[in-house]
Structures are given as structure tokens and as C-alpha cells.
Amino acid sequence: MKFQLHYFLFILLLVVQSCKSDKRIEESIVNTNPSALHFNATDSDQKAIEIADKVMAAMGGRTAYDNTRYLTWNFFGSRKHWWDKKTGNIRIESQKDDFSLVMNIHNMKGKIKKDGALMTHPDSLSKYLQKGKEMWINDSYWLVMPYKLKDSGVTLTYVGEEKTDTAHYEILGLTFNEVGVTPDNKYHVYVDSESNLIENWAFFRNAQDSVASFVTPWTGYKKYNGISLCGDRGKYQLTEIDVLEDVDKKLFTEL
């Protein structure tokens, strides 16, 4: 009888220690992926937040992403981007017409070159700098969305599960409050339960919509200086993706 009691207590101790260990791991993940200022934690689901933290860890981690300096990519063969995450400097070159810009997305100062000439009229310059920032907001989201699940203005919900013959997904819903170019949009992102990577996303033009406007894959992940990025969106493709440690500073000042 004493042996059975000791055995029971031993098993109970192992379970308690295991639970504590799992809790410490979960707390460690959360502590290394703090929410952005004004993330709507109050209305977000705790389970969705926990999954978002696992996504960040699978993508290389918050520290690696925060330390990433220069990103470059080609958006659908339409425009080429260079982005200095530290300063907010960007460069965009259109692939379809004679248009390019350098600017800072924080102070909205920059230069525009169109049809071979620099813009000088203040109103035209202001208009196209705003368009440039909106291009960057849209195009960068298609590249780094998985790192922005707990961004300012985001409400994160747990939508449910979906199983296929080859995968098990946890679905997160993202809605927005007065952020971005189109705050009325909604997204559902499909997180693979084994890899913790986002493998699909569904776009809803309005948060009240029940049917997605489109669904695209997120596949082809590769490591770039410690972080994971991918460019396969089905019929849409992000190409020339790279993470650079240094660039010629003239890239962000001269056209």
C-alpha cells in the first residue's frame, strides 16, 4: 500500500513539474514577443495570442526580426522595394513605368522622379509621397505579415481549426482599428499546428464579410540572416527577396 502511495505521489510530482516546465516555456515565448503599443489585447483571444507567439518563434524570433536592418523584394513584378527598418527610409522603383522615389515613412520627406524628371511642385510631391507610403504599407504587409500579428490596432481572435488530408490548421482572425490604408479589411491566417508557420491567408474586404475575396498560400519559406520569409502567393509572387546587413546609403537619397 505504501509503495502504491509513494508511486502515486511520484507520478503526481512529475506531472506538476511538467506543467510548470510547460508554463515556463509559454511565459518565455510571451516575454520574448511583447505586444506592440495599442495592440488590442483586451478584445483578443488568449489562445490566438499564444499561437501568434509560437508563429513569431518559428519565424526566427522577435529579437532576430527587430535586429533585421535592410529588406528588399520585388512585389508581383510591379515594383521593387528597399526598406531600412531602423530609420524608416525606403526606395521604390516601378517595374512598369518611369517612376521611382526615396522617402522616409515617418517624416514623409523625400524625392519623386517621374517620366525622367524630379517633382518640384509641393502639392504633387506631397501627393506622390503619400502614394509611396501606401505602396510600402501594402507591399510590405504581403512580405512580413506573420511578424505583425500583435501590431498596434490589431484585434486577434481564434476562429477555429481546419483539417485536411495533409495538415492541421489553427485559424486566427485579424481585424484592425484605425490603422493601415484599409482598416475595414479582415484576414484569416492558417497556422500549421506542427511547424507553427502560416501557410495560407484569406482576405476579406470588410470585417463583416463571411466570404473571402481571395485566398492565397504562404509557402516557400527560406532563412534570411536569421528570419524566415517566403514569396509564393499562388498566382501572385514576391521575388528577389533578401535581407542585407549593409547597403550604399545613397540608395535612400539619390534618384
Describe the structure.
The chain is α+β, with helices and mostly antiparallel strands. The protein folds into 2 domains: 1-31; 38-252, Clam (outer membrane lipoprotein receptor (LolB), chain A). Helix content is 28%, strand content 33%. It has 4 helices and 15 strands. The strands form 3 sheets. It has an 8-stranded antiparallel beta sheet, with helices on one face. The radius of gyration is 22 Å and the shape is globular.
SSE arrangement:
Layout: H1 2-31, H2 46-58, H3 62-67, E1 70-75, E2 79-84, E3 89-94, E4 99-104, E5 110-114, E6 117-118, H4 122-144, E7 154-163, E8 168-176, E9 186-192, E10 198-204, E11 214-217, E12 222-224, E13 227-229, E14 232-233, E15 236-244
Antiparallel strand pairs: 1-2, 1-15, 2-3, 3-4, 4-5, 5-6, 7-8, 8-9, 9-10, 10-11, 12-13, 14-15
Largest sheet: 8 strands, antiparallel
CATH class of the largest domain: Mainly Beta
**Sequence of secondary-structure elements:** HHHEEEEEEHEEEEEEEEE
Count, helices: 4
Second-tier CATH architecture of the largest domain: Clam
Cα end-to-end separation: 84 Å
CATH topology label of the largest domain: outer membrane lipoprotein receptor (LolB), chain A
- Shape by Cα distribution: globular
- Secondary structure tally: strands: 15
Strand order of the largest sheet: 6-5-4-3-2-1-15-14
Q: From the alpha-carbon coordinates, what is the Rg to the nearest angstrom?
A: 22 Å
Domain count, please report it: 2
DSSP strand content: 25-35%
The helix content is 25-40%
What is the residue-averaged pLDDT? 90
Instruction: Give me the oligomer status.
Output: single chain
Low-confidence stretches: 5-30
The helix-and-strand class reads alpha+beta
